[in-house]
Amino acid sequence: MANIQCAEEFFMANEALRHFRPTQASIPPREVNYRLRLPSGVPVHIHALNPLAFLLRAAQVYPSKLALVHPDVPHPVIYSYGVWAQRVQNFAYALIQAGVKPTDRIAIIAPNTPAVAEAYHGVLGARAVICAINTRLTHGEVAYILEHSESKLVFVDHEYTHLVKGAKVPVVVINDNGREDDPYEQFLTSGRKFSGERGWPGLEWERNEDAPCALNYTSGTTGRSRCVSGYEALSAFFRELRMGLQIGLINAPQARRLERPVRAIIAGSAPTAHLIGELEKINIVPIHVYGLTCTYGPSTKCYYQPHWMSLSLEERAKLLARQGHSFATAEDARVVFQLKEGEIPDAPLVDVPKDGKTMGEIVFRGNIVMKEYFKDPEATCKAFRGGYFNTGDLAVWHPDGYIAVQDRSKDIIISGGENASSLAIEQELATHPDVLEVSVVARPHPKWGERPMAFVILHPQKAAKWKGRHAEFEQDLKKHVRGRLPGFACPEWVSVVDELPKTSTGKIQKVELRKLVAKL
Amino acid sequence: MANIQCAEEFFMANEALRHFRPTQASIPPREVNYRLRLPSGVPVHIHALNPLAFLLRAAQVYPSKLALVHPDVPHPVIYSYGVWAQRVQNFAYALIQAGVKPTDRIAIIAPNTPAVAEAYHGVLGARAVICAINTRLTHGEVAYILEHSESKLVFVDHEYTHLVKGAKVPVVVINDNGREDDPYEQFLTSGRKFSGERGWPGLEWERNEDAPCALNYTSGTTGRSRCVSGYEALSAFFRELRMGLQIGLINAPQARRLERPVRAIIAGSAPTAHLIGELEKINIVPIHVYGLTCTYGPSTKCYYQPHWMSLSLEERAKLLARQGHSFATAEDARVVFQLKEGEIPDAPLVDVPKDGKTMGEIVFRGNIVMKEYFKDPEATCKAFRGGYFNTGDLAVWHPDGYIAVQDRSKDIIISGGENASSLAIEQELATHPDVLEVSVVARPHPKWGERPMAFVILHPQKAAKWKGRHAEFEQDLKKHVRGRLPGFACPEWVSVVDELPKTSTGKIQKVELRKLVAKL
C-alpha cells in the first residue's frame, strides 16, 4: 500500500498504526491525474492561484510520503499524500452529490483531527466555502452561526454532537477512527462512488482568485462578527497558535534548556519582554507574529536584526516584543492617525511619525485581508475606511520602521488626561519574578478620571510565599514598577486572582474584568 | 553609511572596497516610504503581485544588510539594500524623465554587473519592459533586436559599445565603476533630481498582473524568435546556468571531493547519467531542472525521492537525468501526442501513456509561460496549440509521473523505420571513460534511410592515448555501446573533433553538424 514505505518509523513508534489500513474508497486508482478541469477560455499563460494546488503537487510528486498521522487516539490513522488526496477528492464529490453548489457554506465542528484537514481541502474541491466553528463555543453560539452562515451541511466530531442538538442543518458525525463503519467514512465512500472515477479532472478549477473560500466567525471582542476571506489557505494553519502555550512552558518546573534551538511562533496577543527573555533562556527562539482573523491570522513579523545579538537579553527582548513589519503576503501595514470627531470617513489616512511615541491605529491592505463582513456591508465599509482594513489596535511606529502595539483602542486608560497603555503596564508588571500572568484595565477615579487596576495571577511556586499577605505583595509589586512606569501609569489597585477570564482562543476578556471593576 | 555595518567581512576580504562610497544620489533620505502609489479603485483585499515588492521589502526590513557586491573589478562597488533600492528608484525616475511610458522597451547589453540588476528592477519601477540582449550576439543580431523591439533606450557596458555602433537608439554607456563621472551614474543622478524626492510613492504600482515586463530574444534554434512574458522576475535569475559549468568541473584534473555537499543546479540541456554520477562523486548534489526561455527558464525539476538513496550510483543517476515534474509556478506540464498530418490544430491534446516508452511532445501552461511571440500572432497561435505551450521537445512519461526528454523533434534519427533518440545515444556514448563531450545527428544512409553519426571530443588526459589511432577508438566506442543500445541506434560513424559548434548560451548547434554531414 502506498503509504507504508515512508511511514516505517511511525509504525515502529506506534504499534497500533501497524494494524491500520485506510478504507477501500481511500486507495487511489493505479493511474491518477492530479489536475482539476480547466474552465474554457483561460489564457495559456495564466492560472488562478488555488490552495488545492499544494496538495495535488504533493500527491503527484511524493504519493507515498507521509502526509498525515493521528496516533494518540484509540484508533490511530495514518495517510500518505496519495491516500489523503484521494480522501479529499472523495470529500469534494460527496459534497457535490449532496447538492452543494459553489459559494455554499459547509460547517465543521471538530478538534485538530484529519477530518478538519480533509474538509478544508475537500470544500475547496467543490468550490464551496468552509465555515470552521470553534469547539469552545456554546450551543447557542453554534446555533447562531449555523443559521447566519446558512450552512448546507455540518460535520461534527463525535465529542461535540451536543453542540448541534436540534440543528435544522443535515449533520455528518465524525467518529474519527478511519473505519468503514464511521459515518464520516461512509460519506467519503459515497463521494468516491458518485465520482464514477472521473477523478480530479471531474472537478473544476476555480478561475476566480477572488472567490470566497472561508467564512470565519471570530471569538473576538465584537462577539458575533464574521468575515469572508479569499484564497490564503496556508495561513489558516497558524490558527492554533496561542500565548498560553509558551507561558505554560517557561513556568513548568521541569523546564530546562534545550540542546538545540527550537523555533516557536508567538501569536495571539503581544508577548511580554519577560516571556521572550524566559523562552530564550531555555533555548526556544521566539518568532513573534501578529495579526487578526480578518487578516487571516499572522500578518506582521518581528524580523530579527543581526546586530540585536550584541544587545542584553532585556534590551533584545524589548525589541522582539514589537510586532515589526508586514508579511510579504500583506502588501502594506501602517500606523495612521485615528478618525477624529467630525472628520469625513473617507479622508486619506495619515501616517503617524516614526518616533516610537505617537500613537495611531494599525491598518492593513492586500491579499491577506478579508474580503468582507458577511451580510454586513455597513460594518465592512467602516472597517475599510481609507482603503485599508482598520484593526482597532493602537500602536506606535519606531524609527527603524517596526510597529509596536500599545493597546486595543478601548483598552487605553486615560489617567489625568494622559494616555496610559494597559499593555505597556502589563509588560512591566510581568517582569516581577512572582507574577505568572497579569491584566490591567481602567477603573474610575474621582480625581484622575481613570486609574489602572491590575489583576494578577501569582506564579504557582510563589503563591504560598504571599498567602494571606496580598497587601504586602501589592506594595512589593508597586515598588517594582515605580521607576519603570510614568506615575500616571502605575497601577492604583492590585488584585491577586486565581484565574483570568479568557476567550475560546485564549485571549483575556477585559470586558469581564471591567464588569468586576464596575461592581467595586 | 548604511551598508557598512553588515559589509564588514567584505571590507576585510577586499581592501579596495574599503575606499568605495556610493554616489550622493545613491544615499536614501533619512525617512523612506517603501510603497509604490496605488492606482485608485483597488479593493482593500487585493494587491497585484509585483516583483519589485521583494526589493522594497528587503530595503524596508533590512536597509543596512548587504545587497550587492561587485569586488573583482578595477573599481569594486558594494551596496546595502537601502542604497541599492535608492539606485533602482533613481533608475525608474530617470526613465520617466527620458519620456519612457509604460510598456515601452528598454534594452541593456552588459555582463553580470550591478547595472543589470538595477535595470531589471528600475524598468519595472517605470512600468516599462526590459529587453536584455545577450553579449555574445553579433553587431547585426543586436541591430535587428534593437529595431524589432523598438527599444526607446539602450544601456551598454563599456566593454560592448562596439555592438551598438551606429545604433539609432539613444545609448547610455555603463563604465561599471560606481563613480560620479560614470555616464550611467550621471543617468541615475538625473533621475534622483527629477524625482523631487517624491520617492517610491511617486511611482505607480502596476495593477495589471498581466502587464508585460520582459522581452527576451532567444538564441535558440529558431534564430530570431522572441517572447514577451508576464511577471515572474525571480526565475529570470536562472538565466545564467549552463551545462558547461559542470562538465568543466568534473574533468578538471584538480577536482576533488568536497567536504560538505554543495547543491548545484543543472540546466540548459539534459545532463547525461555519466555527468550526474561524476558530480556526486565530488559531493556536488545535482538539482536537475529543465525549461525554455518561453517558460521563463527552468519549469520542471527532477524531484529527488528518498528511496533512490538505496539504488546504485548508475541507477540513481539515470533517474536523476530525467526532467521530472513541473514547478509549483508552472500549473501543468504534460507529454502529449504530436499533431498528426491533417489533424485540426485545436483538437484537444491527448496524453501519451505513462509507460516510459511512448514518445510525445512536452507542453506547458500556467503563470510561468510566456505571454506571446512579440509582433507574431501566427507563431503564438501555433505555439499555443490546444491551450498549452508546445515546446517541440520530445519526451516519454514514466510510470512514476516523471517526464524524460528524448530529443528535439527534429533531432530524432529515423533509422530503418525506427525512431532513435539522438540524446539517448549521446547518453550512452558519454559513459565511455575517454569521452568528454559528444553530439549525435542523423546522416543519410542508402539502406536504412538514416543512421546516427557521432561527433566526439576526447577527454584532455586521454587525447594523447588515441593520437593517430582514431579508427581504433571508433571501434572501442562502438564496442562500448553495443550492448547498451538497440542496433538501429548504434552510431554508424564516429568522428573525433577538437570542439563542437555551440550557441551563445552553450547549446550544441546540431544544425552546424548537419551541414558538415551534408558535405560528406
TrEMBL record, chains A, B:
Domain named AMP-dependent synthetase/ligase: residues: 57-226
InterPro entries tied to this protein: AMP-bd_C, AMP-bd_C_sf, AMP-binding_CS, AMP-dep_synth/lig_dom, ANL_N_sf
Stretches assigned to the AMP-binding enzyme C-terminal domain: 425-507
Sorted UniProt keywords: Fatty acid metabolism, Ligase, Lipid metabolism
Example of a GO biological process term: fatty acid metabolic process
MF terms in GO: ligase activity
Family (UniProt): Belongs to the ATP-dependent AMP-binding enzyme family.
Protein name: AMP-dependent synthetase/ligase domain-containing protein
Organism the protein comes from: Pycnoporus cinnabarinus
